Amino acid sequence: MRRGSTGLTLVSGLAMLFLYGPILVLVLYSFNAAHLSMAWRGTTLKWYAALWHDEALLAATVNSLLIAVISTIGATLLGGLMALGMERMPLRRQQLIEGGLVLPLVIPEVMMGVALMLLFVMVKMPLGLTTVMLGHIVFNIPLVTIMIRARLRKLDPALREAAADLGADSWQVFRHVTLPLLRPAIWGAVLVAFTVSLDDFLVTFFTAGPGATTLPLKVYSMIKSGVTPEINALSALLLVISMACVAVSLHLQRREV
Amino acid sequence: MATSSTPPFTASEQSLSSTPPTIDVRGIVRRHGAVTAVDQVSFHVRRGEFFSILGPSGAGKTSVLRMLAGFEDPDEGDLLIDGQSMLGVPPNRRPVNLVFQSYALFPHLTVFENVAFGLKMRRVSSALIDEQVRRALAMVKLIGKEARMPAQLSGGEQQRVALARALVNTPAVVLLDEPLAALDQQLRQAMQVELKSIQEQAGLTCVCVTHHQEEAMMMSDRIAVMHQGRMWQVGSPREVYERPCSLFVSRFLGVSNEVPGTIGAAIGEGRLFQPADNEQAPLTVRTESTEPAGRSATLSLRPEHIRMAQERPSTSDPVLSGEIEKVLFAGSDTKYLVRIGRDRFWETRMTSGTSLPAFAAGDPVFLHWSLADARLFFE
């Protein structure tokens, strides 16, 4: 028993190291004073400071945030409406749509990226910020719908009946009962959609045109000319933002009521 | 509370008999696929009346309640509240409020906000909301808990909030769906008394659905017994208990001791009845029935109407002989299981503390009752 659990701890520890080791190294070296070297030359924050003065990088950050915010709003609105609409359908149709919703989550993202690019080219839509936003809305809708729907299905239907019985019309039922009870799920979905959009590389890569460079695309192009500590610093920042979003989202999901 | 300019809870000044029915249900039918959940049900409820629909689960009683609330529509028939047909009127425009079995309190709102919900939807001014919510909370004895969330309340308190949330709107009818089912035995009994006194004090018209016959009898002015989608009998608790119209109603309302047999010749103001196992002498039954002799029937008798004697009593009342099988002491009274045939047992009850001789298992016993207390049912 004792030996078994020691072995288990060892294996788990190794697995965690394998998962988080590279990230740790990346974060650690973002504080390394040495330029273009793996040797440790003391700690510094100058790479973070340098990020502030890199015009191209700042432009990419603005693009990323803009795309993330707008695509999150779009996906949350559409996905939320979808979840609400699905609930009123007969069960068979709900299951059918649910199947269709999961599909974009499992098909390779490269395919999704190529398909979206081909679509935009076909309808003669110039690739740029707008197409990236549309692409992000597309892959975020299933995520949002599934998360809000999970919460919606856990709600006691008697609550909405009680509201109607107390004189609320369907809008008031939604406004005063359904929406407040869905709020944690909606915020959770918003944060996840925001994170996924911020981190996305593949769909962005295929749908972005000139002038629509996002942070992940920028990191990729920077890395072609060698790994600089600046990239480490940038990645570390992205990592912190993503993890914070996911942590808050998980917290909201777990909280009852 | 009488000093208020807008008293929300006033008893009806008119006498019950002269007012038109608050609820008038006319032959409603409700089908779920091939199943007819509610089959040609008609009844009316008078203003200020506590009306219970009693029946086993699956009897269709909840369906009737949901049609009154507006969550379901009848497939046939009509349903009037205060003389107005409710067909096609959505729940939010009906003058009724439902107390849900699960209470369905809004978990994100405080006790105060829960109770205020209905008034808020009707855009009542906040000063008036404040006053009326407080009055409703006082009525259910929840003053001081306004700021609590439903999850912080006990089951009994949640029940009171649900009740206050309905009656604060002064609906024409309060609908109660198994209102006390989720409470434990002691709380349930206390709430029965309290619910009844609130109803009387506020002059509420209530329609209550329950499967608990004692609860229905204690609280109701009239009871409708429902079974398999149909209403079998409507009457006062005493009527349905003492003069059930069928074996089902008799059994559902309480213990009924039964002997199958055949009806015989007329005698005095009744008929002779021959129990099926021929060990027993024929009994006299008071009945207005004109069924032909030889027709099979069941004699039914409530335990509390049966008297027990050690010697064959010298009486003209019907007498059955038997043997005490089991003595079950239940505190305030003692139940006796009496074997009256090869494998037929009757239950009798005696109040503990009476000076009557106590019987022990194995004792021979004579059971007798007054002619008027036994009921005869034909299949």
UniProtKB/TrEMBL annotation, chain A:
The chain crosses the membrane at residues 7-31, 56-84, 96-121, 127-148, 185-211, 231-252. One of its GO terms (cellular component) is plasma membrane. It is found in: Cell membrane. Residues 61-252 form the ABC transmembrane type-1 domain. It is a multi-pass membrane protein. Its main location: membrane. Pfam families: BPD_transp_1. GO terms for biological process: transmembrane transport. Belongs to the binding-protein-dependent transport system permease family. CysTW subfamily. PANTHER family: PUTRESCINE TRANSPORT SYSTEM PERMEASE PROTEIN POTI (PTHR43848:SF2). This is Polyamine ABC transporter, permease protein PotC. It comes from Nitrospira defluvii. The gene is potC.
From TrEMBL, chain B:
GO terms for biological process: putrescine transport. One of its GO terms (cellular component) is ATP-binding cassette (ABC) transporter complex. Residues 1-21 have a biased composition (Polar residues). The keyword Transcription regulation does not apply. It is an enzyme of class 3 (hydrolase). The keyword Isomerase does not apply. Pfam families: ABC_tran (PF00005), TOBE_2 (PF08402). Keywords: ATP-binding, Hydrolase, Nucleotide-binding, Transport. InterPro entries: AAA+_ATPase, ABC_SmlMolc_Importer, ABC_transporter-like_ATP-bd, ABC_transporter-like_CS, Mo/tungstate-bd_C_term_dom, P-loop_NTPase, Transp-assoc_OB_typ2. Residues 1-22 are annotated as: Disordered. Signal peptide: none annotated. GO terms for molecular function: ATP binding; ATP hydrolysis activity; transmembrane transporter activity. Its EC number is 3.6.3.31. Residues 23-253 form the ABC transporter domain. This is Polyamine ABC transporter, ATP-binding protein PotA. It comes from Nitrospira defluvii.
